[in-house]
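Bug report (template v2)

What were you trying to do?
Predict the complex of my protein with cytidine-5'-monophosphate.

What happened?
Run completed; filing so the output is reviewed.

Input:
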Amino acid sequence: LTPKDLQGRRILVSAGPTHEDLDPVRFLTNRSTGKMGYALAQMARRRGADVCLVSGPSSLAAPLGVERLMVRSALEMQQVLLERFPETDALLMAAAVSDYRPASFAGQKIKRGGDEMIVRLTHNPDILQSLSSLKTRQVMVGFAAETEDIYTHARQKLERKHLDLIVANDVKALNSGFAVDTNQVTIIHRSGQVEPLPLLSKAAAADRVLDRLVALLDAPLVR
Ligand code: C5P
């Protein structure tokens, strides 16, 4: 039987990639499919939470009982999360947000030109960082998709983005990361505690992350 240990908690989950439009038919994106974020939303709902899932473009179906808001670009995702953040108890930021977007959007399809073409990109805002300054009671969980030196990079992100937990994974490892149903993650706590988990289904990995979230939500506010 699933414990209802998130009953009465409002949880905001972001998932999927973002699409950064270049012209009416082309965009920049990444390999995220949304599976980890959707699993988090589904399991949090099963454990009794009121869940709002802010999803970039994804072919996955909305989990039952979850409010889903579809967005496209990083800027759209930021806007929706900003609106929902004040009323939430925890944010699980599983989306693979594009770091850059085309500096300008071409209103018409870009024509083929010479041998080379240069596209100018501009930095997207760091959504987690922008929300951390609005943090009151919210528990914030980030995800770090790494390809090398996982622990050091994830630890730096936890500090920089003022997170309570960061869930790191090696996206180059077999059966882990993008587009598969399993994940091997390491949960890193603010305290420095490092918890490597075995290769699990994304649903099981989500449950383990939610176990940690429950503990943080139940802890006195000393953060
Ligand atoms: O810096 P990096 O993208 O690796 O950090 C990963 C974490 O930061 C994820 O939780 C991701 O959703 C979040 N992020 C963000 N805004 C960005 C880029 C990443 O909130 N522009």
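What did the reviewer find?
The chain has a mean pLDDT of 95. Residues 16 and 33 are 5 Å apart (CA to CA).
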